[in-house]
Amino acid sequence: MAGSYFGGVWAARHFWIHLAMSDLRSRWRRSFFGILWTLIQPLGMTLLISFVFSAMFHTPIREYAPYILSGIVVWDFVVACAIGGSLSFVQADAYIKQYGHPLAIYTLRTVLTNLVVLLLAASGLVIWVLAVMPDRVGWSWLASITILPIVALIMWPSSTLLAYVATRFRDLPYALNLILQAMWFVSPIYFEEKAFRGAKLDYLVDYNPLYHLLQIVRAPLLQGEWPTMANYAYCFGLIAVLSLAAWLFGRSAEKKVIFYL
Questions:
Q1: Looking at beta carbons, which pairs linking 178-187 to residues 24 or more positions away fall under 8 Å?
Q2: pTM
C-alpha cells in the first residue's frame, strides 16, 4: 500500500519539481535584490537581535550572532513548511480537482521550495563562521549537511498532516501562528541553552526535538564538534512518529479532501 503510494509520488516527480521551481521563480519576481533576500533577511535580523540580546545576556556578539543566525535559518524553514504546508491542498485545489496524483506531492512541493531557500540562507551562516570563527573548521562540518534530509523528512509528514486538517478546518493556519510563537519562547532558538539550564528548565532543552535538530548544525559549525547520538535519535524518532501518523491519517483522509475544497 505504502509502496504503491510512494510509487505514485515518484511517477509525478516531473510535475511537483516543476511546481516547486515555479514557486521559486515567482518568489522573487520583479524584486531588485531577488534571490539575495535569502541572505539579506536572516543576516539583517541576526544583526538586530544579536546586538540587543548579546548586551542583555552579556554574551560576546562574535559567538552569539552565528548562534542566532543558525536558529533563524532553521526556524524560518520550520515555520514556512508548517504554515505553507497547511495551505498546500487549499492552494492546489485546481490541480487536485483535475489530476489524481497522490496529495502528498503538494506538501512535498512546499518542503522542496523552502529547502532550497534554507540551503541558500545556510550559505550565509557558513561564510560568517569561516570569516569570524575559522578555528571551528574541521571534519565535523560534514555532519551539518545531514540537517537537509533530516529536516525535510520531518517537515514533509508534518506539513501533510497539517494540510489534511486545514482543508477541513480553515482556521488552523491562524492557530499555527500562535502555537509556533509559543514554541519559539520555550526553545533554544534565539535564547542560549545555558539560559534554560540556569533557570532549571533543562527539560525544555533535553526533551525538545527542536534543540536536537539545531544541534546538528550548531555542534559542527559553532563548536567544532560532532552531534551526539541523542541528537540523531530524537530526530529519527520524530521522523518515524510523524511519518506513521501521516500515513495512518492519510489512509482515510485523502479521499475526503476533494469534498472540502
A1: 180/78, 180/79, 180/82, 180/83, 183/210, 184/75, 187/211
A2: 0.90
